[in-house]
Write a structure and sequence with these properties.
The complex is a heterodimer of chains A (about 475) and B (about 250). Chain A has about 475 residues and is an alpha/beta fold. Helices cover about 20% and strands about 35% of the residues of chain A. Chain A folds into two domains: about 325 residues, no CATH class; about 60 residues, no CATH class. In chain A, strand 2 and strand 3 form a beta hairpin. Chain B is built from nine helices and twelve strands. In chain B, strand 4 and strand 5 form a beta hairpin. In chain B, helix 6 runs parallel beside helix 7. Classes of the chains: A alpha/beta (about 475), B alpha/beta (about 250). Chains A and B meet through helix 9 and helix 10 of A and helix 2, strand 7 and helix 3 of B. The complex binds adenosine-5'-diphosphate and magnesium ion. The site of adenosine-5'-diphosphate has 13 residues of chain B, from strand 2 and helix 1.
């Protein structure tokens, strides 16, 4: 029995206008039909219902909303998706996954298929001691930490898409690192989508709502890599939310790699909370997807916390990639570093907007933000918002810079005088531009895979990449 | 191998080369000297195919071909090498990859098989030693964070690996201490040979103590105002460029 009915929800706006709210209807109906997770613990039902209420009030973000000016969600709002299609893991998926180098990194891995844990594809036997991975569907029932933290960092109160994920996620992953544990291996989380446009989905593309909660205990250390891939079906809507909590003095090295098909629609939010002296590094690498909106937020909730946000977005054709970052300094002596780079070709559009909040009392905050873009064609464009600085403390250092440019003519000439043709020289310099971000990927196997992947993309050579040591 | 006839070139409305004539035969070393701003680098860059300069008159033939018709990369693959006065930094590309790509471009042109990373290393090892380079320099980004001397040495190293037919060295000696200068000279002398030509652009006579040129030309205000044997360099060292400049304007 669900404790909620459609009547208790605000009614969507009248049909005709594609407002966020009108488009919310099918999701609402699905939510009600799925009985909001019957059998789920009361706290979970309450959180989901709340989230559904937020979603039905807020709807999908529109371009009139702050932070959304340059990105229209029309391709998502106007499409019909088969919601949460359950698909069994098949040998064909294993074969498809095996062809994707990013899924084959040597590391314990958990695989989600359309948002649900896929034990057949996961390899969790070799998890480092003190690290555990539990499907959320189970953790919700019996793990007190899940109740304490799930949907607390990314609440959806003010964000329709996060609310939607919170209401509809039926599974996901809980990663826990025990206090004092320094994991000697990275952990790989693979988010695979399959089945769009196939009989399993009734012909419609699939919508999936993957979810992860990562809890790093006091003085623990973990590297975690999230990879988003399309196994079959091409078109799909991924709405993924990852929450990361770093307890005191914990260190997390997080990577998000969005490498879905060129017809995929992707919304992702990674929300981190750093307690005292915690160190959080995150890299968002956007390579695939037709429309991507990637939000990275970090709240420095204890003194002395440090964070570094790296971003690389590589778009061509008609890809649209929107990067939104929010750094929230709530305590003194916090440091944040933010470096985002974009490479835009074809008719692609890149968007970058970065918000930095320095709350009252967050003295000696030190924040640096930089966004550099390379335009490879005359039809590609970058839309950068003015940096949004909200500073309520006075002893603060905040610097920011943004550039949009083309390849350096002198470097091109230099390469040509050494016999490289103009095209090869251009591709090499494009790679070199990306390399500044890749070079900072601390997980060697991941770095090498990305180097190869990107170098091959520009050079067509599956050769070793030209990165310096 | 190189025949420059009445070459004129400009950059942005400004005429820089105003009628250069020069003939360099295989096996010869020519030095071009001249004060700052006389057009030495412009000449070197025009020979390499830099598009910021527009050739407004004259002709250049290289190995019997019209050089000015060739793209920079074609010139390189046909054995023309320019050591830059200011080598360019390319962060994100390893020196090793860069050199191998360059060498393979030339090999492809000659119908030879391309070298993989291991073969390449074997081949360049003794050149590294010849130039007293640190192996680690190969792993670093091209010229990034190199000292002035390291950059110049890296140019000569590239030349040694590519074994060009015609090497144009633009002030490769400037800013080097005497030890580095000797190393550079050694690299150049090792390349000297009957089928090769070298055009040394220099501001100072000092280099010519170590690389003895067959001919010395003085460039002033976009023209070669005097040519002679190696003694001309000494004369310049003694008298400075002043007397020739006045001569050129007159
Ligand atoms: N790209 C350019 N645009 C405008 N002026 C230039 C350019 N390159 C060189 N010049 C000018 O041409 C003259 C010759 O320069 P250059 O060839 O570099 O001399 P050198 O190498 O003999 O010192 C100088 O006055 C210089 O300022
Ligand atoms: Mg010069």
């Amino acid at each position: 029995m669900t404790s909620m009915s459609t009547e208790s929800l605000p009614q969507p706006a009248p049909a005709g206008e594609i407002s966020g709210a009108a488009a919310a209807r099918p999701y609402l109906d699905h939510f009600v039909r799925s009985m909001a997770g019957a059998g789920a613990p009361a706290w979970l039902r309450t959180r989901r219902e709340q989230a559904m209420r937020h979603f039905s009030t807020l709807g999908f973000p529109t371009q009139r909303q702050e932070g959304w000016r340059h990105t229209s969600l029309a391709p998502i709002v106007q499409s019909e998706f088969a919601l949460a299609v359950e698909a069994a893991w098949t040998p064909a998926f294993s074969a498809a996954l095996a062809r994707l180098p990013l899924a084959g990194l040597a590391a314990p891995r958990a695989v989600l298929l359309n948002g649900r844990f896929a034990p057949a594809a996961s390899q969790l036997e070799a998890l480092p001691a003190g690290v555990s991975v539990t499907p959320l569907a189970r953790a919700w029932r019996d793990n007190a930490a899940a109740e304490s933290y799930w949907a607390k960092l990314a609440t959806g109160e003010r964000h329709g898409l996060i609310a939607l994920n919170t209401a509809l996620a039926e599974d996901g992953l809980l990663v826990e690192v025990a206090p004092g544990i320094e994991a000697d291996q990275p952990l790989l989380l693979v988010y695979a989508s399959a089945g769009g446009g196939t009989p399993a989905s009734g012909g419609s593309p699939v919508a999936q709502f993957p979810r992860a909660l990562i809890l790093a205990g006091r003085s623990s250390r973990l590297a975690v890599i999230e990879v988003f891939l399309t196994l079959s079906g091409g078109a799909h809507f991924t709405n993924a939310v990852t929450e990361i909590r770093l307890d005191e003095n914990a260190e997390v090295d997080h990577y998000k790699i969005a490498h879905e098909s060129l017809s995929a629609l992707h919304f992702g939010a990674v929300e981190a909370q750093l307690e005292r002296d915690a160190r959080y590094r995150t890299s968002s690498i956007l390579l695939g997807g037709r429309l991507v909106r990637n939000e990275t937020g970090a709240r420095l909730a204890g003194a002395g916390a440090e964070t570094r946000l790296l971003g690389l977005y590589v778009a061509s054709g008609r890809q649209h990639m929107d990067n939104f970052t929010r750094l929230d300094h709530a305590h003194p002596h916090g440091a944040s570093r933010e470096y985002y780079k974009g490479i835009l070709d074809g008719e692609s559009v890149g968007v970058f907007s970065g918000r930095i909040i320095v709350r009252p009392g967050a003295q000696r905050t030190d924040a640096i933000q930089s966004n550099k873009n390379l335009l490879l064609s005359e039809t590609a464009s970058l839309r950068a918002a003015e940096p949004q600085l909200e500073i309520y403390a006075d002893d603060v250092r905040c610097t920011h810079g943004a550039t949009v440019g083309q390849l350096d003519a002198e470097a091109l000439f230099y390469l040509r005088t050494r016999g490289l043709d103009a095209d090869a020289a251009r591709r090499l310099l494009t790679y070199a531009f990306a390399n500044e971000i890749l070079a900072q990927v601390a997980v060697t196997s991941l770095r090498q895979t990305l180097e190869k992947e990107l170098f091959a993309r520009w050079s067509g050579q599956p050769d070793s990449a030209p990165s310096p040591a | 191998m190189l025949e420059i006839d009445n070459l004129h070139a400009r950059a942005e409305e400004r005429e820089i080369l105003r009628g250069i004539n020069l003939r360099l035969k295989a096996g010869e070393v020519h030095a071009i000297m001249g004060p700052n701003g006389s057009g030495k680098s412009t000449l070197a860059q025009v020979l390499a195919g830099r598009e910021t300069y527009t050739v407004t008159g004259g002709s250049v033939r290289y190995l019997g071909r019209d050089l000015l018709e060739m793209k920079p990369e074609e010139r390189a693959r046909e054995g023309l090498f320019l050591a830059f006065q200011y080598p360019v930094e390319i962060p994100g590309v390893s020196n090793m990859y860069f050199l191998r790509a360059a060498l393979n471009a030339a090999r492809k042109q000659q119908g030879l098989e391309e070298l993989d990373a291991a073969d390449f290393l074997t081949r360049v090892r003794d050149k590294i030693r010849l130039l007293g380079m640190e192996d680690s320099l190969l792993q670093r980004s091209v010229n990034e964070g190199f000292s002035g001397g390291e950059k110049k040495r890296n140019e000569i190293f590239q030349m040694a690996v590519l074994e060009p037919k015609l090497a144009v060295l633009d002030e490769t000696d400037s800013g080097l201490d005497i030890d580095a200068l000797k190393v550079v000279a050694q690299g150049v002398n090792a390349l000297r040979g009957r089928e090769r030509g070298i055009l040394l652009v220099t501001h100072y006579q000092r280099l010519l103590n170590y690389i003895i040129p067959d001919f010395v030309h003085v460039l002033s205000n976009g023209r070669i105002v005097r040519s002679g044997g190696k003694e001309l360099a000494l004369e310049l060292e003694e008298k400075g460029y002043g007397w020739l400049e006045t001569a050129a304007v007159a």
